[in-house]
């Protein structure tokens, strides 16, 4: 029976295609995870800019010969989704160039180039694809059906019996997964942030990076602005693993919900989206108490998403919406400008400025 006389068969098939794109989206994520686990990008990178054939990749990733046909199929997905590129090698001298059996050459794309080199995004991508963060979403439907106290309203705790931060405190391997992920993101993003919005960091003499982990962001700021005294505030078990030697940064063990050390500026990168509004206001109140008045240079510098603020193309909108669901795993929340303004003013701040120059993220300057 026809659903609608004006609905064509091709429209129905297109709708099914869209349904399948959403249904099987996890395959793309798992293909990427497999590439990370096998270090395929590193194998291709090892062969330089000319690319690597499948046999050359196999010699680096060390898989059984019985799995090579399956690897070829995995590579086809990774090429189709833009993680890698593939092309036939240039024909040899005297060859007609028509040999379709010639092995494909796999090369890096802008996406997979982010997974190699000394400052790559492999650790944060590995963290985001870790089973501890993915498995709670299998319970998302049932989670919605259960009434829970606000302090228990966390997908991670619903799935694992403890909060994400509680597990990090008890499990050194999981703690390293998070810290290494945050370091890789900061190593990637901070040079861009400083280049795109240097004015946010100028005119201050001291800065405390709240929840700054192992200090990658603070180190980047200290390097770019040597006159700024930079420190990092984080929990005991995080500071205990801070890098040794002269990093140009002071590490302070403490709790941002209790007290923040005084400084001209408080820096929060990807911190406030981890917490609900009430907890954010507690953090923001402590930030306000730690900084001088605006006329004396006091400010907060936040790197986080501001949903709906430019750029407004579909890919940015989709990723901001997806990330808002992702941070539900730790009872977090991505905010639009109205929601940011609400918590800023409730915490006693008087003004703010959003600069959307970091892809789906923005630099937000907040003034007392």
Automatic annotation (TrEMBL):
UniProt-listed GO biological process terms: melatonin biosynthetic process; methylation
Residue ranges annotated for the O-methyltransferase C-terminal domain, each copy included: 138-350
Molecular function via GO: acetylserotonin O-methyltransferase activity
Database matches in Gene3D superfamilies: Vaccinia Virus protein VP39, Winged helix-like DNA-binding domain superfamily/Winged helix DNA-binding domain
Entry-linked Pfam families: Dimerisation, Methyltransf_2
Keywords, ordered alphabetically: Methyltransferase, S-adenosyl-L-methionine, Transferase
InterPro entries reported in the protein's UniProt record: COMT-like, COMT_C, COMT_dimerisation, SAM-dependent_MTases_sf, WH-like_DNA-bd_sf, WH_DNA-bd_sf
Annotated catalytic residues: 273 (proton acceptor)
Residue ranges of coiled coil: none
Residues of the O-methyltransferase dimerisation domain: 20-117
Quaternary structure and interacting proteins, as annotated: Homodimer.
Family statement drawn from the similarity comment of this UniProt entry: Belongs to the class I-like SAM-binding methyltransferase superfamily. Cation-independent O-methyltransferase family.
Protein name: O-methyltransferase ZRP4
Source organism per UniProt: Urochloa decumbens
């Amino acid at each position: 029976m026809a659903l609608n006389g004006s609905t064509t068969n091709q429209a129905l098939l297109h709708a099914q295609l869209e349904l399948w794109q959403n249904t099987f989206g996890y395959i793309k994520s798992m293909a990427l995870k497999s590439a990370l686990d096998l270090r395929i990008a590193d194998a291709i990178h090892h062969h330089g800019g000319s690319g690597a054939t499948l046999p050359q990749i196999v010699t680096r990733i060390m898989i059984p010969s019985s799995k090579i046909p399956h690897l070829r199929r995995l590579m086809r997905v990774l090429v189709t989704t833009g993680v890698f590129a593939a092309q036939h090698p240039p024909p040899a001298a005297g060859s007609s160039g028509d040999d379709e059996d010639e092995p494909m050459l796999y090369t890096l794309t802008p996406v997979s180039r982010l997974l190699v080199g000394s400052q790559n995004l492999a650790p944060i991508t590995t963290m985001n694809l870790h089973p501890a963060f993915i498995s709670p979403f299998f319970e998302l439907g049932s989670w919605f059906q259960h009434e829970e106290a606000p302090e228990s309203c966390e997908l991670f705790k619903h799935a694992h019996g403890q909060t994400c931060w509680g597990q990090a405190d008890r499990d050194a391997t999981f703690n390293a997964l998070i810290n290494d992920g945050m370091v890789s993101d900061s190593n990637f993003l901070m040079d861009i942030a400083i280049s795109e919005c240097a004015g946010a960091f100028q005119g201050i003499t001291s800065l405390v990076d709240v929840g700054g982990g192992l200090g990658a962001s603070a180190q980047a700021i200290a390097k770019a602005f040597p006159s700024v005294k930079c420190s990092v505030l984080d929990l005991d078990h995080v500071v205990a693993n801070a890098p040794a030697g002269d990093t140009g940064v002071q590490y302070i063990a403490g709790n941002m919900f209790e007290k923040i050390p005084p400084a001209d500026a408080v820096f929060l990168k990807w911190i406030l989206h981890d917490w609900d509004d009430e907890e954010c206001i507690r953090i923001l109140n402590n930030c306000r108490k730690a900084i001088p008045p605006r006329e004396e240079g006091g400010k907060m510098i936040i790197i986080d998403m501001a949903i709906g603020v430019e750029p407004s193309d579909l890919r940015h909108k989709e990723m901001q919406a997806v990330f808002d669901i992702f941070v539900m795993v730790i009872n977090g929340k991505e905010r639009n400008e109205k929601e940011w303004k609400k918590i800023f003013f409730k915490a006693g701040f008087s003004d703010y400025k959003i600069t959307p120059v970091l892809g789906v993220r923005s630099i937000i300057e907040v003034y007392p």
